[in-house]
Write a structure and sequence with these properties.
two-stranded antiparallel sheet; mainly alpha; Recoverin, domain 1; 2 domains; 4 strands; single chain
């Protein structure tokens, strides 16, 4: 991308950095950027997401892809030419390119499941993410409970029984089901928001050669 942006300190977000993010992500509001900066710095005080964390996420949620290059692809596509790490600025620009403007948990959730970015999710998408959740949790045979979770989620959310769920259907049904059964929320959104965004970014990049 070859951006030319000032980098803030590890604990503060400079006005120059906000301007840089907004110049590359026009839908990003200052309030949302600051909200995410607080989350990011609490999770990664060094202002960089460690390579091993990203590698662990991709090992859990993806098979048959070249996981070793995802880190470099994110930085190459969204960062400065001089960047050697995934810092807050690069993460924000990537997230806003992939997920709708507010980056709320429902938007992140759908983007995390929608592996081919066609606007629909299905049993295979829920299974892939559920299996990844169990791998991250250290479950020995993640495929077995993941099948059950995928069955439960598709039964709860697939109103028209077409075996796929649109973004609109997902939003409406998930909000209703969370009120009825809070465990559904935990099964869907097991990982933190930053990890959800990284999985969504990976979905986006995996659609490119």
């Amino acid at each position: 991308m070859g951006l030319n942006c000032c980098k803030g300190s590890n604990e503060t977000l400079s006005e120059e950095e906000i301007i840089c993010i907004q110049s590359n992500a026009p839908n990003a509001t200052i309030d949302v950027i600051r909200y995410w900066f607080k989350i990011f710095i609490e999770a990664y005080p060094g202002d960089d997401i460690p390579r091993e964390r990203i590698a662990a996420i991709y090992r859990a949620y993806y098979t048959g892809v070249n996981r070793a290059h995802f880190y470099q692809r994110i930085v190459r596509r969204y960062g400065e030419e001089s960047d050697y790490a995934l810092n807050f600025r690069t993460f924000m620009i990537a997230a806003f390119d992939v997920v709708p403007p507010q980056l709320n948990k429902f938007d992140l959730g759908f983007a995390m499941f929608d592996s081919n970015r066609d606007g629909f999710v299905n049993w295979r998408d829920f299974y892939r993410v559920a299996k990844g959740h169990f791998i991250m949790a250290g479950v020995e045979y993640p495929g077995l409970p993941a099948e059950k979770v995928a069955d439960e989620i598709i039964a709860c959310l697939d109103c028209d029984h077409e075996d796929s769920i649109s973004m609109k259907e997902f939003y409406h049904r998930i909000q209703d089901r969370v009120l009825e059964d809070p465990l559904i929320y935990d099964r869907l959104f097991f990982v933190d928001k930053i990890s959800m965004a990284l999985i969504a970014i990976a979905n986006h990049l995996s659609t490119y050669p």
